[in-house]
Amino acid sequence: VSFWVVREILHAQTLKIRAEVLSHYIKTAKKLYELNNLHALMAVVSGLQSAPIFRLTKTWALLSRKDKATFDKLEYVMSKEDNYKRLRDYISSLKMTPCIPYLGIYLSDLTYIDSAYPSTGSILESEQRTNLMNNILRIISDLQQSCEYDIPLLPHVQKYLNSVQYIEELQKFVEDDNYKLSLKIEPGTSTPHSAASREDLVGSEVGASPQSGRKNAAAEGALLPPTPPSPRNLIPHGHRKCHSLGYNFIHKINTAEFKSATFPNAGSRHLLDDSVMEPHVPSRGQAESSTLSSGISIGSSDGSELSEETSWPAFERSRLYHSLGPGTRVSRNGYRGHMKASSSLESEDLAVHLYPGAVTIQGVLRRKTLLKEGKKPTVASWTKYWLALCGTQLFYYAAKSLKATERKHFKSTPSKNVSVVGWMVMMADDPEHPDLFLLTDSERGNSYKFQAGNRMNAMLWFKHLSAACQSNRQQVRARYQERV
After folding, report:
1. Cα 112 to chain center, whole Å?
2. Which fold, 2-100+147-241?
3. How far apart are CA 54 and CA 119, in angstroms?
4. Under CATH, what is the fold of the domain 361-483?
5. Which part of the chain is CATH 2.30.29.30?
6. In this predicted model, what pLDDT tens digit does every residue of 220-249 receive, in sequence order?
7. What is the dihedral of CA 410, 413, 416, 418, to 10 degrees?
8. What is the pLDDT of residue 100?
9. Among residues 124, 327, 333, 396, which one has the fewest Cβ atoms lying within 10 Å of its Cβ?
10. Can you tell me the distance from the alpha carbon of 351 to that of 339, in angstroms, rounded to the nearest whole number?
11. What is the pTM (predicted TM-score) of this model?
12. Angle at 377 between CA 374 and CA 382, to 5 degrees
């Protein structure tokens, strides 16, 4: 659906027709919202957010104020912020009203549960895993029972929509063609490059777009909630087909093995006959530019995407993606490891993702100091960091602003790093705040409280920090006995 939206807008012959088509899709999105077809709504809105459409400044300028306000409201409802909190609240408020939910929410939930509570393959599963899985299945079942629409079937329309098909493996090439056509329609001032979403657009093109500076106006219709002002640097991600399924495609590079009875690993498949391919063993040079376990590609491809999604704080993304199938992002412009970055912003984007080792888990956390060298601090306040656990080393990246929510909003170099070997981590016993956990260095008398945003994220950090704290514990004990 997203590719169809992009294609129809780009193939309009004149600027006026293109603006009319864009306006028509905004009206279509509003109608989908009124019908509570949220899955199709996400695809249409994300297609309008994609880079080939978002950068068409002249086209957006011809839209009426009413259409712009409507699109702002739909963006607000479908935002990824706080793990789709607004969309979840809206779905829960519908009760028995017919609704087709955005399925990516539940796919993400199931995947995170499977990572936090891996399946053992035995009859006796973890009670927490079973309860969480059953809760999601119950929600989906309730939505299925209430999903009854009385809409007349138009065969010619159905035939046309079914004729719009795209081969998933060729997605990258479709994106490249769309972006080239967009550049042909409205040439950009910067060096042409393929961009999949409007987050990939940097420099003057984004600044010149009416979408980045437009004000929030009141939209017609009581169904659309008011939109609070949002900073320009918090633009939501663009859309690809995979967006509608709740995960992102990445480069097909060697990833960590994922063992799960819920999401079996089928391995990489051939593009033509879909046969399982033999695993590729990278050479030493290739291994240096392989994918970190956070799922970020650190290589030399110009087509590489270095953007992070932090709606859920990042964790073992490579395992997540590998469990859902092989990635299909294909590099377009080849090797550029020896070339200089085209801009300081591009260099900064690359720098913020360079870690000294394989990242086990990373994301935004708030920290408060409880004890420092055995003494309670005079003033204890919450401080926001981007934390990355690399083996047994915990790296702190300070925030650039108070509203930092994404990786690019934090500094590229760590402000401090500590070894957590021999430390103790435990979940805080606070029913009102289930997203808290404690990290204590008993040897030095330091204790910290962390807030992860929700209980599931806290459990993920607890799981990985526990493993890091217990590694090489015998060496720590031996070292302690030597001191004694």
Report:
1. 13
2. Son of Sevenless (SoS) protein; Chain S, domain 2 (1.10.840)
3. 42
4. PH-domain like (2.30.29)
5. 361-483
6. 333 444 444 433 333 334 444 444 444 343
7. 110
8. 87
9. 124
10. 15
11. 0.45
12. 120
